[in-house]
Write a structure and sequence with these properties.
Number of strands: 11
Radius of gyration: 21 Å
Distance between the termini: 41 Å
Order of helices and strands: HHEHEHEEEHHEEEHEHHHHEHHEHH
Structural class: alpha/beta
Shape: globular
Largest sheet: 5 strands, parallel
């Protein structure tokens, strides 16, 4: 256990992150902010939900991340007929050397460092919930026996917009297990040119390993020891409380448009991500800007609008904008 971080640790941390980002950028065009936020969550030890229309490179990003971090990687394609045992694994009957029948556990694809839950909202809620224990406790219980998952462990899920056909909205309890929800935008004209040149010119550019699992765990340990001033932490917690319409002193925007606010996990995500961002930028303490930056990906899936908010076309990001403005007054 380390007591405090020093300038050498901060510099090493920032260099390693830049190396990871540089390798990922070899295969992923654009999406620099998405890549950085995914790395924040991975270093902090959280799961990530990526939302965007099909074909924007979400799956490629996760596969490239596994390669660059030198971690075991499994992909699960979620479909309406997928069953929980297809994810977690199951006991099957096998004969031993003496010819006797015995149960043997066959692990499912969830047993890997990085699990890509592709199009997670195309599976039924029963199958979606098979990930809950793994996402929170990093373990799987099958037939009464609990088995640990390899560390570091992350679930990176992709989700199609709910307006598309054949989707099942994720329940609130499962959304809350995601550290970040990231919105993947369509590439610009310049980025489209680069994507076409990369994928059709025949010159394959391959990302290389930048770190390994032990290095990720070391970076996580360093980030945990980044100091945060009481006033900055108080601001982050007041921001989370302001998402609750029933709290005394809640901003007008929350009382009018919000049905449920963020859980304490939202506050944990903001603080943890803010510490990682501070180190990424070569600083040894958390700033108010770090808190504001982390608030959007950490809270957008933890704020649930009421009927009036949905009818008026409000968004979670817009609510967070107004809450930040209200706290500044």
């Amino acid at each position: 256990m380390m007591d405090e971080i020093n300038a050498e640790m901060i510099e090493s941390f920032a260099d390693k992150v830049k190396s990871i980002e540089g390798e990922i950028a070899k295969e992923i065009i654009g999406q620099r902010e998405i890549i950085r936020q995914v790395l924040m969550a991975v270093i902090a030890g959280g799961n990530v939900l990526l939302e965007g229309v099909p074909g924007l490179g979400k799956t490629r990003l996760v596969k490239t991340l596994g390669h660059v971090l030198d971690l075991s990687f499994n992909r699960i394609q979620f479909t309406p007929d997928l069953m929980p045992a297809d994810i977690t694994g199951t006991n099957i009957i096998m004969k031993d050397e003496q010819g006797n029948n015995r149960f043997s556990f066959q692990p499912g694809p969830i047993f890997a460092n990085i699990v890509l839950a592709d199009e997670i909202n195309r599976a039924t809620p029963k199958t979606q919930s098979a990930l809950l224990e793994a996402m929170q406790e990093h373990s799987v219980t099958v037939a009464g026996q609990t088995r640990g998952l390899p560390e570091p462990y992350f679930v990176l899920a992709t989700q199609n917009p709910l307006e598309q056909e054949g989707t099942y909205p994720l329940p609130e309890a499962q959304l809350d297990r995601f550290f970040f929800k990231l919105l993947v935008d369509f590439p610009s004209l310049e980025e489209l040119h680069a994507i076409i040149e990369l994928t059709t010119a025949g010159d394959d550019v391959v990302a290389h390993k930048a770190v390994d699992g032990d290095a990720i765990l070391q970076l996580r340990e360093i980030a945990r020891h980044v100091p945060i001033a009481r006033g900055v932490q108080d601001y982050a917690l007041r921001l989370v409380l302001a998402t609750h319409p029933e709290i005394d002193g809640a901003p007008d925007v929350a009382r009018r448009y919000v049905r449920y606010g963020s859980s304490p996990r939202g506050a944990q995500a903001i603080i943890s991500a803010a510490k990682v961002r501070a180190l990424m930028e070569g600083r040894y303490n958390v700033s108010f800007d770090d808190i504001k930056y982390a608030a959007y990906p950490a809270l957008r899936h933890r704020i649930f609008l009421n009927f009036e908010g949905l009818a008026e076309g409000r968004t979670s990001d817009g609510i967070i904008d107004e809450i930040i403005d209200a706290l500044a007054e």
